[in-house]
Amino acid sequence: MTDVVNTSTQPELMAQLQHDYGQNIVFYLDQKGGVIYLNATAKQQLSEATSVVEFLPHFKTSIEWVSFWNQVRSKGSLDICYEMQLRDGLSNLQIHCRFIDETNGIFCEANTLPIASQELAQLSLYKRIVASSTDLVAYVNQSLSLELVNPSFARFFGLADFDEGQPVAEVFDFQVFDDHILPRLQLCLKGSICTHQFWVSSLKGRRCLEINYTPFTLSSGQICGVVLDARDITERVLAEQARALASKVFENAAEAILIEDSKQRIVSVNQAFCQITGYQRNEVVGRTGLLLSSPKNDPVVLRKMWRELNRDGVWRGEIWGQRKDGSEFPGWLSIAAIRDGDRDRVTKYVSLFSDLTHKKRSEERIWRQANFDSLTGIANRQRFEVSLEKAMSSQQAGVLLFLEFDTFKATNDRYGHSVGDQLLQDIALRLLACVQPNDMCARFGGAEFAILLSEPESISQQTKICIELLERLSEEFVVDNKNLFLSCHIGIAQAYSDALTASELIDKAYMAMNQAKVQKHSRFLRYSAELECNSQLKLSFENELRRGLKQQEFELAFQPILSMQSQHIIATEVLMRWRHPEKGIINANDFLAAVEDADMLNPLNEWMCQQAIAQYHQWQLEGRQLGRLALNIAHLQLQDLGFFHFLRSLMVEYQIAPEQLILEVTEQFIVNSSHEVIAQFKRLQEQGLLLALDDFGRGYASLHYLKQFPLNILKLERVFIKDIETSEVDLLLAESSIQLASKLGLTVVAEGVETQSHYDLLTKLGCDWMQGYFISPPLPLTEFNSWHTGYVDD
Fold it and tell me: Could you tell me the strand order of the sheet in which 399-405 lies?
């Protein structure tokens, strides 16, 4: 049967029908069943019929014709077998119907067929047509049994041994037959034409069938059965589902999708494109060059993109897009060229792109977090080290300044983190104001900062910069209505002359800064080999300290404190010594600074307290009367409230009461003590503990602190006692201190009493207690026990 070429004009269609189908009954019907065209053969057989109901008795009403019209429109084409009223009477004809989109009409071509089913089955031509058809064809009688099936039907349903009269229900799944097949067979036996789609199980697995149910009518008008014409449309259904899915993906994709023709004219865009660019579909269809219109796109890069796209068929990369309002945004573009398989020419360009604005902002935020200090906004240690390594690898000489604010921690602890944070921000601003634009400032952490001077300044210029920095940083900081001052030290190291790598240069500058803190007379210090040697010696000494504590090389010494009047032992002070395996006995004053630098103060002091209180307990068991136990506690440990818990646990363990202890503190501790620490002392004092101020006169405590702090005892520094016989100044200072302490209700202990003259003069001045070589030097335990035994006996 010849295809009809679709045309947009009716005269052309008619000419084509007349030309191609002149030997068959050809007619053309509109949507209402009206006859639009009859070819010559049709005119002879149908006369001048004007409606389908005049020559096809099957369509009794217009509703039946409209139903049939919708069926043909949905399928595109349909083959039927109906009785037709011809010139010589009714004749059963095979009619091929095809829907014409341009006119919404149905083109029909009819051939005559035998009337009876037996005759149909025996007709050789019919048998050949049905047998060779890929459609699944079967004839079902009124009792719903199969009388005829073609090979395609038998193969699909596995009917190798088909028996005429087999119930059609056995071919299909029970549920499928009851829900889909049976109702339509019953309708068809009543004269209706049915078509539907459903999924069935077959030898090929799950397949989708489209079945046409056509009543088989005898010349008498009696319906004797149903012709089933089924087609496997699985691939078509899956393709339609894939197209529907692709359409949904196209519309709902998060990425913008743009389709252009071979001349880069926009054919279609999805919703994401509209959301990203601000354009509507009707505003962009037909336009060219819209996607890459941003002036930020480098023309060289664009030319390279098109070359690679035409060569490889695909290109991916970052581009700049432009929205409808003119704003620009970074985007990621993936564009593919779609080619005609036969002609190998580009027919479409499909572009997928996404807005990278948020990603870029996120990357920028992450980069800043990784490279800049979140509090001050200047570079952090990582960025500084990377920049320093880059500068040194490119042979760029520079000078590194390492700064530390050693009083910042005390200020931060006293006023809180909000004040501390503002201080750090102000420090960063002052540093930036003192350096050149090409120099780099960074915060390493805490109150440590570094400056990289990009220009190889001379030593005098470096000195000038350090002095300027120190002067600027020594000015008061006003934070939260508080006037604050900070102390800063600077270490200097020169690239290449002092170190060849970035890490070495930082270490050298840090070493110089630490040495500046130790020397105290200099606020900034330049690195030198001698400095490193001293630092290594200090490190070696700290390692020896750790080894000494582990190897139990530390020991206690004891010195009595006597009453000036009664000569009774009032207290026994505990002192610490280090019995070095090579250097012999080392006094505490010679290693305590190193202990503090090595962060060993707490474990060493705790060891001293435990050993001393345990020994005092032993003396009590032995019946020795040694007065109170006087303990020297480092000021840094007393700042830790955990020390008081530790001390109380020792007192409970060794059954020592607070009235048996004296705690000796320094003026530095009194100046820096917090209200919480003072409260701890007061609670112990209420239970009988005495608090002594050691080395009074050596430090810088004012009389205000003597009034504020809950002191019981004042110990005069030995420097006032040593020359008291010959120095009127020392005598006056000693006398004034004793009188002041007496008026404040404090007990005075004179340290360093070495001669009878010292004793006599201090007694005359009204001193209460004494301690020194005149009585006994600090002695190891065994020697002290012997001294005590002899003193008691005397």
Answer: 379-380, 440-445, 448-453, 399-405, 488-494, 524-526
pLDDT tens by residue, 457-500: 677 888 888 888 988 988 889 988 888 888 899 999 988 888 88
In contact, 335 and 351? CB cutoff 8 Å: yes
330-339 average pLDDT score: 90
Q: Are 578 and 600 in contact (CB under 8 A)?
A: no
State the Cα–Cα distance between residues 532 and 512, nearest whole angstrom.
8
Place 379 in a pLDDT band, splitting at 50, 70 and 90.
very high
Q: How many CB atoms lie within 10 A of CB 629?
A: 22
Q: What are the phi and psi torsion angles at 23 (to 5°)?
A: -90, -10
**CB 585 within 8 Å of CB 579:** yes
**Region for residue 562 given its phi and psi (left: phi exceeds 0; alpha: psi -120 to 50; beta: otherwise):** beta
Neighbours of 502 (CB within 10 A): 21
Structure tokens at 155: 């193969």
Alpha carbon distance 160, 508 (integer Å): 95
DSSP H or E segment with residue 137: strand 136-141
Query: In sequence order, what E strands does 597-743 have?
Result: 628-632, 661-665, 690-696, 713-716
Measured distance between the N- and C-terminal CA atoms of the chain, rounded to whole angstroms: 146
Say how far apart CA 587 and CA 570 lie, in whole Å. Answer: 24
Q: Tell me which DSSP letter residue 499 carries.
A: B
Q: CA 416, 422, 425, 431 torsion: positive or negative?
A: negative
pLDDT tens digits, one per residue of 420-462: 999 999 999 999 998 888 889 999 988 999 999 877 667 788 8
User: From the CB of residue 115, how many other CB atoms can be counted at a distance below 10 Å?
Assistant: 15
Please answer whether residues 130 and 230 qualify as being in contact, where contact means their C-beta atoms are separated by less than 8 angstroms.
Answer: no
Predicted confidence (pLDDT) per residue in 211-223, tens digit = 999 888 876 677 8
pLDDT band of 520, cuts 50, 70, 90: low
Residues in the chain: 794
**Tokens 């630098």, residue?**
597
Q: Which of 254, 250, 248, 246 is nearest to 331 (CA)?
A: 254
Contact (CB, 8 A) for 520 and 526 = no
d(CA 364, CA 342): 48
Q: Which residues pair with 630 in a beta bridge?
A: 573, 662
pLDDT single digits (tens) 59-104: 888 788 888 998 898 888 888 878 888 888 888 787 888 898 888 8
Backbone angles phi, psi at 215, to 5 degrees: -65, 135
Give yes or no for residue 118 having a pLDDT over 60. Answer: no
Indicate the helix (H) or strand (E) that contains 147. strand 145-149
The residues near 64 (Cβ < 8 Å, ≥ 6 apart) are: 58
pTM: 0.45
User: What is the full DSSP assignment across 264-313?
Assistant: -BEEEE-HHHHHHH---HHHHTT-BS-TT--TTS-HHHHHHHHHHHHHHS
Instruction: Please give the DSSP secondary-structure letter assigned to residue 495.
Output: B
Nearest to 488 by CA among 474, 508, 503, 467: 474
- Token pair 């590194």 is found at 400
Mean of the per-residue pLDDT values of the chain: 84
**pLDDT reading at 705 higher than 70:** no
Tokens of 720: 């006032």
Closest CA to 631 of 616, 649, 653: 616
Rounded-to-integer distance, Cα 719 and Cα 702, Å:
19
CA distance 99 to 107: 6
If you search the block for the tokens 């985007």, which residue do you land on? Answer: 331
| CB contact set of 499 (below 8 Å; sequence gap of 6+) | 493, 505, 507, 508
Residue type, 162: F
Q: Which of 85, 82, 86, 106 is nearest to 94 (CA)?
A: 82
d(CA 624, CA 629): 12
